[in-house]
Design brief:
By secondary structure, the chain is an alpha/beta fold. The chain has nine helices and ten strands. The chain folds into two domains: about 240 residues, Rossmann fold, CATH 3.40.50; about 110 residues, Helix Hairpins, CATH 1.10.287. The strands form two sheets. The protein has an eight-stranded mixed β-sheet with strand order 5-4-6-7-9-8-1-10, with helices on both faces. The protein has a two-stranded antiparallel ribbon with strand order 2-3. α2 runs parallel beside α3 and α8 packs antiparallel against α9. The longest helix has about 60 residues. It is elongated.
């Protein structure tokens, strides 16, 4: 199942993603600027074992999240004994990835020697302020002044400690006791299907997929002692955590898709009827405009005939002037009607054009594959 992280700044999801690798190709993580960052060995045999449950704190999906922050950095990885994730960070550009040979404090590293420390809070450290303070004190000691720490906590352990506050607020409060600047990111597994074009670095992620994410399995805190952020967060990140063996959509999901197809079909039919009605109205208005045009032409000819008949007769000329004035007023009125009819025609044309675009969009939406089985 893929994993999504949400930006702590505004909670939106956008198209920063990891593509599912095709045979013979390397997976890529899209950086915030859109440039791919290599993610080697993503689907190694170790990844099939790592993060097999929501409580596994050191799955390779987490290292994919950390990769952009490790480029050119000395990293201390507090997972027990390192592992394939540490090798991933080295290949992604970390200067070195160090792991303690044994558990416990103090950490066997010099003061201020690390640019980045990654660690997972155990349930005991979440519940015990003294244990948590001890581990953060050691992290402060080994970090450089502007160094960065990435802390990961299992959501269920935070739920047991949180009373009357959200999990995000709970983790933020814990970390802000020891760091000046903190961002909280939610790690949310969900099922999805991805379409990958071999040889292309352009990846597409549907924001609608975030709606099926459910509750987060872990929360991640990015922290530093500096007064400002020393990192940049993409608004969302999708990473594959398995080879994509596939699966059938559940009955509820299929029913939802069928209902959506039926709704779009009904909406398309309604818009089609409205489009036909607008076309008929447009034709009626065009006929009316043509009739008014013929009337104006006939009136102009009649005015010219009266002018020729009156000649030089003064009395007839006076009468002609009166009749001509009436005809002019009538002509102005008719021309105003023509202008109004032309404006109505233009308006109806715009409406028809908008409806054509909406029908095309609905037809495209209706043609979208309904689920993983299609």
């Amino acid at each position: 199942m893929p994993l999504m992280t949400h930006s702590a700044e505004d909670g939106r999801q956008t198209a920063a993603a990891v593509s599912p690798p095709s045979e013979g190709s390397k997976p890529h993580v899209a950086s915030p600027a859109g440039e791919p960052v290599s993610a080697p060995h993503l689907l190694s045999s170790a990844s099939a074992r790592a993060d097999s449950s929501a409580d596994a704190p050191w799955g390779l999906a987490f290292y994919l999240f950390v990769e952009p922050f490790s480029l050119g950095k000395v990293v201390i990885d507090l997972s027990a004994g390192g592992g394939p994730g540490a090798e991933m960070l080295r290949k992604a550009g970390a200067v070195d990835v160090l792991s303690p040979a044994r558990s416990g404090l103090p950490l066997p590293f010099p003061d201020g020697g690390a640019d980045l420390v990654i660690c997972a809070l155990t349930a005991a450290e979440v519940a015990d302020d003294r244990q948590r303070a001890a581990i953060f004190a050691e992290i402060h000691r080994v970090l450089r002044r502007d160094g960065m720490c990435v802390v990961r906590a299992v959501a269920t352990s935070l739920e047991r400690a949180a009373v009357g506050v959200s999990l995000r607020a709970m983790l933020a409060d814990m970390v802000l006791e020891h760091f000046a600047t903190v961002d909280i990111v939610e790690e949310t597994p969900f099922r999805a299907v991805s379409y990958f074009t071999p040889g292309s670095d352009d990846l597409a992620v549907s924001e609608a997929m975030s709606k099926v994410g459910g509750r987060p399995s872990h929360l991640i805190a990015l922290c530093t002692a500096a007064a400002e952020r020393t990192w940049h967060l993409s608004e969302s990140l999708l990473v594959p955590i398995g080879p994509g063996e596939g699966g059938e959509a559940g009955d509820g999901e299929l029913a939802a898709w069928r209902a959506e197809v039926e709704r779009l079909t009904t909406a398309s039919a309604a818009i089609g009827r409205e489009r036909d009605e607008l076309r008929e109205r447009q034709m009626i208005l065009q006929d009316r405009a043509e009739r008014l045009g013929r009337t104006v032409a006939s009136m102009r000819k009649e005015v010219e005939r009266y002018l020729r008949q009156i000649g030089d007769d003064a009395a007839a000329r006076e009468l002609l002037m009166l009749e001509r004035e009436q005809l002019r007023r009538k002509l102005v009125s008719v021309e105003d009607e023509i202008d109004a009819a032309n404006r109505e025609v233009d308006k109806q044309k715009s409406s028809v054009q908008a409806l054509r675009k909406e029908v095309a969009r609905l037809r495209a939406a209706r043609g979208t594959p309904a689920g993983p089985g299609h």
